[in-house]
Amino acid sequence: MAPASTDHKETLPAAAVAQDGSTVAIWETSGAQKRASVQSMFAEIAPTYDRLNGLLSLNLHRRWRGIAVTGLRLSSGGTVADICCGSGDFMTEIRRTVGSSGTVVGVDFCLPMLEQADAKRIPGINLGDALSLPLQSSKFDAATVGWGLRNVPDIDVAHAEIFRVLRPGGRFASIDMAKPRNPMTRAISKFFFNTFSPLLGKLFGCPTAYTYLPESTERFASREDLIASMKKAGFTDCTFRDLMFGNICIHWGTKP
């Protein structure tokens, strides 16, 4: 596994084009169209991703990652794969736990996002797809995904790939957006995200990407559907925990 090269940029359409020539919104795409559109979107927002992520999460995202890592029950010297690693924030949190004797490998399909991780001097980054991981089977003690499953074309395949690279007894954690269960909280959250997220994106010159956030959240699998997908892949001991009034949810599972 080699670090991602930063010698070239990938350019893909920002949105898919339907057969009649009309443009399809990113959040309405699927399959290969979704892959290309999401990849292009993240390439566009890569330079401002960390700043906007901090603003939208009220700088709580590191705390949430810490909770997810705690649930993995890692020890010093562990080996962990961070899937959809982006700019590397999850990798940094994991490395604090496994220490200098541990191994942390990141995989992401968007080169400009990996360049952000490379600029932070985060080692172990690799260019690769969550649906076909460039990683050995039964290699890792744990695997993580931070706000990535919402973006993959096939969650079942992603879960199966993560299951494949884990050792028996290995743990998996995924953090992503969720819809609050309480109707009033859900309505308030929907208004906030539908208003504030696109506005913030517009101020930073990427309104489409930050309209995608609330739109994709509305279309994302439920907590129970994610548990069912994890079990389909073979995971046991599947649990979840809501954070931020149910707007964020962490899922955990174990490879038996």
Your description of this structure?
- By secondary structure, this protein is of the alpha/beta class.
- The chain has one domain: Rossmann fold (3-Layer(aba) Sandwich), CATH 3.40.50.150.
- The chain is built from nine helices and nine strands.
- It has helices spanning 31-45, 49-56, 61-72, 89-98, 111-119, 155-165, 183-203, 207-219, 223-233; strands at residues 16-17, 23-24, 79-83, 103-108, 125-127, 140-146, 166-177, 236-243, 248-254.
- The strands form two sheets. A seven-stranded mixed β-sheet has the order 5-4-3-6-7-9-8, sandwiched between helices. Strands 1-2 form a two-stranded antiparallel sheet.
- Helix 4 links the parallel strand 3 (79-83) and strand 4 (103-108).
- The longest helix has 21 residues, at 183-203.
In total, the number of strands is 9
Shape: globular
* Beta-strand fraction estimate: 15-25%
Strands in their spatial order, largest beta sheet: 5-4-3-6-7-9-8
Structural class: alpha/beta
> Overall pLDDT, averaged?
90
Looking at the structure, the CATH topology is Rossmann fold
Query: For the CA atoms, what is the radius of gyration?
Result: 17 Å
Q: Name the CATH architecture.
A: 3-Layer(aba) Sandwich
Number of helices: 9
**Major beta sheet summary:** 7 strands, mixed
Query: Percent of residues in helical segments?
Result: 40-55%
